[in-house]
Amino acid sequence: MKRDIIAGNWKMNNNNAQTKELIKQIAPLVKDAKCEVVVCVPFTDLDTARRAIRGTNIKLGAQNVHWAPKGAFTGEISADMLLEQKVEYVIVGHSERRQYFGETDASVNARTKAAIAAGLKVIVCIGELLEERETGKTAEVVIRQINGAMAGIEKADLKKIVVAYEPVWAIGTGRTATPQDANDTIAIIRKAVRKLYGKTAANALRIQYGGSMNAKNASELMAMPEIDGGLIGGASLKAEDFAKVVNY
Ligand code: PEP
User: Fold this and answer.
1) How many CA atoms lie within 13 A of 13 on its CB side?
2) Is the CB of residue 210 below 6 angstroms from any atom belonging to ligand 1?
3) Disulfide check for 208: which of 108, 116, 160, 164 has CB 3.0–4.6 Å away?
């Protein structure tokens, strides 16, 4: 049985003191979660978060990783640097990275490969823009993105990957995909993974939904058969809201 995974994406929010406080508030509320619980914090909060999650069931995540082990890449962080901070998960290819920082399917693939080679687990984000949805291109886009992200990745490494299907029009907008729409698109993604790796591996792959998932809509989204978790932005910044999602 695969275990659902709910991950908070804090984005560029919370200083060290706020990180310590938020984790302190979240921990008792999620201690009995049946799903895996992850918080993906800014790089500068990793050390604080690492200490704060000690003795809890919360796992540590980061929000980006570079593909090179080291070198002249100003502003970037390598997989080994994240491992040194005891990071377990890293988000790659978030739509904000694609939109504002020129992330492409090729760079998402390079970052993913480097992260899994180093021993990290990766949350690979894909999802269509509003215009793509409205012009009937959702399937084409997510298939292109999943094929791009997985290029050259061995079947044995698939267990180190979680895919987050995040329709871009639903991120931070309060607009959620209907559970049926989210389920249908995730089924399309899983079918593409099946073509690459076969049925067993595709069925074992955890695919999250992300996009304005919150305390109110988490349970109906999580009830859908294809949805194996959530990537949570806004609602992960408030302990009670995040805990309600985790305890869907
Ligand atoms: C996200 O940033 O991955 C996300 C899903 O954000 P929100 O929950 O705020 O829509």
Assistant:
1) 13
2) yes
3) 164
Residue closest by Cα to atom 4 of ligand 1: 233
Instruction: State pTM to two decimals.
Output: 0.98
Alpha-helical segments (H) within the chain:
16-30, 46-52, 79-84, 95-100, 105-118, 130-134, 138-150, 179-197, 199-204, 218-222, 239-246
Catalytic sites, residue numbers = 94, 166
CA of 72 to the centre of ligand 1 (A): 31
- Of all residues in the chain, the percent with pLDDT exceeding 90 is 97
Is pLDDT above 90 for 44? Answer: yes
The finding on whether 232 has its CB within 6 A of some atom of ligand 1 is yes
| pLDDT tens-digit series, residues 214-238 | 999 999 999 999 999 999 999 999 9
What CATH code is assigned to 5-246?
Answer: 3.20.20.70
Contact assessment for residue 112 and residue 69, using Cβ atoms and an 8 Å cutoff? no
- Pairing mode, strands 5-9 and 229-232: parallel
- Please give the Cα distance from 165 to 183 (Å, whole number): 10
CA distance 242 to 61: 15
Q: Please give the distance, rounded to the nearest whole angstrom, from the Cα atom of residue 218 to the centre of ligand 1.
A: 13
Domain range list for the chain: 5-246
State whether the beta carbon of 124 lies less than 6 angstroms from ligand 1. Answer: no
Cβ burial, residue 203 (10 Å; 0-12/13-18/19+): exposed
8 Å CB contact between 173 and 219: no
Residue 211 Cβ < 6 Å to ligand 1: yes
